[in-house]
Each structure stands twice: as C-alpha cells, then as structure tokens.
Amino acid sequence: MQGTVLYGPRDVRFEERPDPTIIEPTDALISLPLSCVCGSDLWPYRGIEPIDGPTPMGHEYVGIVEEVGSEVGLIEPGQFVVGSFFASDNTCEICRAGYQSSCIHRRPGAPTGAQAQYARIPLADGTLVATPGMPPEEMIPSLLAASDVLGTGWFGAVAAEAAPGKTVAVVGDGAVGLLAVLAAKQLGAQRIIAMSRHESRQRLAREFGATEIVTERGEEGAERIKEMTGGLGAHSVVEAVGTQESMMQAIRCTRAGGHVGFVGVLHNVEIPGEEFFFSHVHLHGGPAPVRRFLPELIDLIWNRKIDPGKVFDLTLPLEEVAEGYRAMDERRAIKTLLRP
Ligand SMILES: [Zn+2]
Fold this sequence. Notes:
Layout: E1 2-8, E2 11-16, E3 28-31, E4 35-36, H1 42-45, E5 55-56, E6 62-68, E7 80-82, E8 86-87, H2 93-96, E9 107-108, E10 118-121, H3 124-127, E11 129-130, H4 140-159, E12 167-171, H5 175-186, E13 191-195, H6 199-208, E14 212-214, H7 218-228, E15 234-239, H8 244-253, E16 254-262, H9 273-279, E17 282-285, H10 290-302, E18 314-317, H11 321-329, E19 336-339
Parallel strand pairs: 12-13, 12-15, 13-14, 15-16, 16-17, 18-19
Antiparallel strand pairs: 1-2, 1-5, 3-6, 3-10, 4-19, 6-7, 7-11, 8-9
C-alpha cells in the first residue's frame, strides 16, 4: 500500500509501505475511505516533539473492516467502523470507568499509520465501534471527525462541566476548540464564548453554537471574560491549544469553583503553584477517552443532529499529504481531509 511517513521536521513523504497484516489475534484490518491531518501531528512536524526515525503518521480513522483476527468476536468484515487514537480493551476497570485512553492495555490505535490506504487496528473489539450501516458518502467526514477532534473537544467540554445555565469559554480556535463549542452547545450551555481572532474560524464557531466571540488573548483575554461575566469568570473553560500562554489564559478565565477541561497536548507548561492554589479552579483533562463518547457521537451524526465534518476546510488527494501539513502549519487550513 501507500502511506505517509514523517522523516524529520517538515519532511513528510508519501511512499510505498508494507501492507498491514493481522499480527495479534485481536487485530482487525480496515480499508480507509478518507483520512486526515491532526493538529497534534504538527508537534512532531515542527520538530517540537522528537521522533525516533521515520514514523508512519495518522491516528484518526474510520474504515471498512477487511479482515479480523481469530479472537475478534464483536467486529466483523464488511462493517463500517470508527476508532480512535488509542486502542483499548474496553473491559478493564479503567475502561469501565470511562478512561479508555488510560486502558491498562492501551497502545497506539493505528500503529501502521492512518494517513494511508489500510490500517491495522489492535484490540478491535474494544477499540472499534460499528455504525448502524454503511454511511452515505457525505457523512464520512463527520464520522472521521468523531474519531479524534470531535471526541477530544467533547471530552474538553465534559471535563469543564459544560451544562445548562453555564457560561463556557473556549481557548483555541483549531478544530478541537471549534468542536468543543459544538459540544458545549449540545450539553446545553447557556453562553458559549469562543476566543478567536480569525474571521473564518469565528464564523464556524458561531455556526457550531458560539454566542459571543472574544478576540483578545492572554491576560487581556482573561480580563475580557471577567468583564463579560460580572467580574467572576466563566464557569467552564476548555483549553484546546497546549501552550503556557493558553493554559494560563484558561485558568485565569475561570471563576473560583469553576472547571478547566484541558485537551491541548501540553508542551513545556508550568503552572505557578501559588496562583493555582488561590484560584480555586478544578483542572481535568488529558488524552480524551474518545471511545467513551463514540456510541453517542455516532448516534448524533447518524441522525443528522450535528455536522462536525464542517471543520474540514481543505480536501486534497492522499498523495498530496505534505501540502496538507503545510497548509495547517501555516494556518491556511483548519483541518485537511485526504482522499485516497
Ligand atoms: Zn481497558
């Protein structure tokens, strides 16, 4: 098959790769009708997250099951399935508590890389969720979004305790932040404030349910949120970037007793202990347990209640994947969809 490999900073190649095969009896092989580039792929792409040699890329996927190992019982060839970036057994105590991305058997969800034609998925019965049938073509991007960016934005909103009557602020206007807006809306938040300075992203945030936009960031952004909330701060804040500035912005936007859901992968972030101590803010986040939310998200998409696929604003042939990375790196695209 052909697939995507990162060789070093800004060196993405689309090349001939070995066809994935069943290695463990709990594996499934799926063919990928579409794939995409994730904001978190930009960390190794920019050289901020080091890689040990050439690395197959892509961890968001939906697909058609081609073959299953001898111990797979729930998933069958011919099904359309949605997975996520960590494989999990979905049976251990941690999984049953809803933290499948910390499963005691956790491993990469698509170790052969999902920016490719085929992928091997470990722990298929625990990791994959089948859709009710074969989805129509135009629904596939939304199901693909559920695999990571929607699931992650959703976890951010849940971790921030977005709920009816609450004011939710979202720090970060990438795909995850925008879908956290959609999640907050679905969870019934009263006011949803998207923090963004880009017009096209503000427009999408409004489409997804943002009631207000704040263009200031950092200290000024936090001040603005306080002004808008009677000096108190938001009840719930989703952090969807992962830098020192964005994390502190999120904590400072939150009222005493409020909750920050942080889902941007934190890089070199240090939280000053004394300020945090006196903030009375709850922090919860980490790699989203997307598997927890997949049945509900698939149902919402299948019944056309939500259309998260709108975050894809650039579509390229899979072999032009390197341009897909460049466009996201330069913020010319929110999220790139790739067609094999
Ligand atoms: Zn588990």
